[in-house]
Amino acid sequence: MNIEEHTIMVIEQFSGKLPTEFIEECRALARHNEWGIALENLCVQLCEYDVLPSVQELDEIRRLAGRVGIKEESLNFLVSPGSNNS
């Protein structure tokens, strides 16, 4: 799967959990080769909307982050203290 497809797949995991307009905006960024920005925006909105990714979702976010050059430790805010997502 190429980076665009991977980014859109990660974004789609949160369809229904985040506002539709935001999901569409992230998809558009991904389609315009702005994968890192799309992922960063997605992660910030997950935090803003108190959406805690599942272990599987978080693993996929981390895999994508590695592909687009985002350091894993910059995603630590997605994991709530005391959760088993780490």
Helical content, roughly?
A: 55-70%
Output the radius of gyration.
12 Å
Tell me which oligomeric state these chains represent. single chain
- Helix/strand/pairing class, anyone? mainly alpha
How many H/I helices?
A: 4
Task: Report the major sheet.
Answer: none
Strand portion, in percent? under 5%
Could you explain how this protein is built, in words?
This protein has 86 residues and is mainly alpha-helical. The chain has one domain. Helix content is 58%, strand content 0%. Helix 1 (3-12) runs parallel beside helix 3 (35-48) and helix 1 runs antiparallel to helix 4 (55-68). The chain is globular. The model has no long low-confidence stretch (mean pLDDT 89).
Give a concise summary.
Helix content is 58%, strand content 0%. The chain has 4 helices and no strands. The protein has helices at residues 3-12, 20-31, 35-48, 55-68.
Feature tags:
single chain, 86 residues, mainly alpha
List the helices and strands and how they pair.
Layout: H1 3-12, H2 20-31, H3 35-48, H4 55-68
